[in-house]
Structures are given as C-alpha cells and as structure tokens.
Amino acid sequence: MPLSAAEIANHLGGVLIGDPTLILKGFAPADRAQPGDLTFAENESYFVRAEQSAAAAIIVDGPFASTRKVLIRVPSARIAFAKVLPLFFPDPVFRPGIHPTAIVPASAKIDPSAHIGPYCVLSDGVRIGPRSVLQGGDFIGPNCVVGEDANLFPNVTLYPASEVGNRVRIHSGTVVGSDGFGYVEDAGIHRKVPQIGSVIIRDDVEIGANVTIDRGALGPTIIGRGTKIDNLVQIAHNVTIGEHCLVVSQAGIAGSSKLGNYVVIAGQVGIAGHLKIGNHVSVAAQSGVMRSIPDGEKWLWSPAQPDRQAKRQMIALQQLPDLLRRFNEIEKRVLQADLPPKND
User: Fold this and answer.
1) Helix, strand, or coil here: 226?
2) Angle, vertex CA 286, rays to CA 171 and CA 250, nearest 5
3) For 169-217, how does the pLDDT look when each residue is reduced to its tens digit (9 = 90+)?
4) CA nearest to 214, candidates 229, 200, 231, 228
5) 74 lies in a domain?
6) Do you find a cis peptide bond into 29, omega within 30 degrees of 0?
7) Could you tell me which residues come within 8 angstroms of residue 155 by beta carbon, excluding any fewer than 6 positions away?
8) Distance separating alpha carbons of residues 157 and 207, to the nearest angstrom
9) Which of 99, 145, 203, 229 gets the most CB atoms within 10 Å of its CB?
C-alpha cells in the first residue's frame, strides 16, 4: 500500500529529512530497490549502498546526510525495519466463519470472529477465541483451548488438552502435546509410562515449522510468554521455558529441564534432563549442556562450560600439536645425551 514519507515517519516516531509528500510504494534492500522504494541503513557501508541505489528514501539511525534521498532518522534502523515491513506486506486477512469442509462438533465453542479453514478437524470441547485463525488441515484434539488472535498455519496438530494463549503463531507441521519419551524397564522390556499431562503455551509465543513439544508426564510442559522457537526444535516432557527466550533451530531440551527468562539457546544445542538454566543465559551453537547454569552466564562447547574456560581449553588444544612436536624433540635429545659413548 503506497504511503507518504510523512506517514511512515509518524508511524516510526522518526524525524523526516526531506519531502514529506514523497510517496513510497514498497520496501526492499538497497541492492534490489526500485524507484519509489524505501530501504534502510544501519551502518556506514549500508548507507553508501543505499544512497547509490534506486531507492527513494532511507531509514537511518546515524548522523547521515544526503542531498539525493529522503531520510527518516530513528533510534534503531533495525527495529524500524521490523515495524515498517507490515505496512507494505501485511498478513493476509482471513474472513470469519467455518469452511464447509471443516469438521466441527456441536460441543466446540468457536467465536463468531474466528476463521476455521478447509479440512480442519476439531474435537469435542474445543474452544477457539476471537479473531483466531486455523488456516487449513489443522487437527485440534479434545478440550484444547486457543486464545485470541492466534494463527495456526496449515497442518498443525494439537493433542488433547493443549492450551494456546493470545497472539500465538504456530507454523506448519508442528505437533503440540505428543507423548513424552517415558519408559521403565520391566522384565527385559521397556514399559511405557503413560503421559497424562498437557502443554501450556503462554501469550505472544511464536513456534516455527516442524517443532515437537511433548506433553508432561503428569503436569504441564510450559512455554513462557513472548518466547520464540525456531524450526525443527524438540522440547521434551515437563520442560518449562521462561519468558522471552529464543530457541534456535535443531536444539533439543530433555525432560524436566527449566529455563529462566531471556535465555538464548543457539542452533543444535542439546540440554540434558532435570537441569536449571538461569535467567539471561546464552548457550553457543552445538554445545552439549550437562550441568545447570547460573544466571547471566555464557556457555559453549561440549560438554558446555563457561565461555572463558572453554576458550582457554580450545586455545590449548590448538597448541597441542606444536607442544607434542617440541616434546618429542626434547625427548630425543635427552635420550641421545644419556646414551653411553661408542667404543672404537
């Protein structure tokens, strides 16, 4: 939707430098911008490229000046970028109502403003809140609750008694509430421990594609408010994830571990079971966490350790081949010095 530079500056709370009536028709990175586009620059090299591009206006957060482009100065160009994109690329609008191919039992309570897309299957006792969207092919198990303004992309599965909060987004292929991996050995066989808990997803959570979140064995598995989970993540039974955490792709969290608030779990991290990860903790990619981590620490490596300790060990390992070579040379000299003189 075309917008004036003044309208965008007002939306962002920014300072406009240039023509307020300039009409901007789209948003693009500098190397792909067309005439009439808006772009952004968060550092000097980005700004040079943006000013040389075909873009008509640039969002900036530094002391940049231009005689060629309209500028919108903001405190953070990257935050402004996130705020302005929905103006040009709004989410699709889903009309209220239930598609004729959807299966909805009489016991389900669907708010009239909700959208139930094609081939969705809802079970007994389901509740869907105002303006929530089930895009298509979703399965909602018995007694599940979906709050307000939630958006379930195609082919999402909610097992029985799962609770989804307000403004939650769950992407395609994700399974919420599958059985936790619980077995006990009995007379040489692995006997399944029934998983009778649930999953609770708090408000403003976003869950990527093909994520699996297991139901608790007895109580709930909990995903805290504002947490964002990337694609292909496994969260086991009875895990509690705090508020505003980031869990990156291919990470796995074993059963009954608890994460605090504002935790960052990078890609391919594995966290063992029954651990406590404190608030504001960061764990680097491909780390294997075998111990609990106190608040505010950065850990890496496998087994994961505090960052300074791990870095010292990495440096020592890099030096090991040279140390071994020097040791072998010293050993050779010592052995030669100890040899008895040869008889003529």
Assistant:
1) coil
2) 15
3) 999 999 999 999 999 999 999 999 999 999 999 999 999 999 999 999 9
4) 200
5) yes
6) no
7) 136, 137, 138, 172, 173
8) 13
9) 229
Phi, psi (5° rounding) for residue 19?
-70, 115
CB-CB neighbours of 191 under 10 Å: 10
> Model pTM?
0.92
Residue 333 lies in a domain: no
Residue 52: give the domain boundaries: 3-88
- Alpha helix ranges (H) inside the chain: 5-12, 44-52, 77-88, 307-338
The DSSP result for 106-140, as a single string, is TT-EE-TT-EE-TT-EE-TT-EE-TT-EE-SS-EE
8-state DSSP, 293: B
Contact status, residue 60 vs residue 41, Cβ threshold 8 Å: yes
Q: Is residue 146 part of a domain?
A: yes
β-strand 298-300 against 305-306: which pairing, if any? antiparallel
Catalytic residue numbers, as ranges: 237
Q: Is residue 38 part of a domain?
A: yes
Question: Position 234: which residue type?
Answer: Q
Structural domain tally of the chain? 2
Average pLDDT of the residues in 7-20 = 97
CA 57/CA 30 separation, integer angstroms? 10
Gap between the Cα atoms of 154 and 44, Å rounded: 41
How many angstroms separate the CA atoms of 35 and 46, rounded? 18
| Secondary structure (3-state) at 222 | strand
**Residues with Cβ < 8 Å from 128, sequence gap 6 or more?**
108, 109, 110, 111, 114, 116, 122, 134, 140, 146
Strands 198-201 vs 220-223: parallel, antiparallel or unpaired: parallel
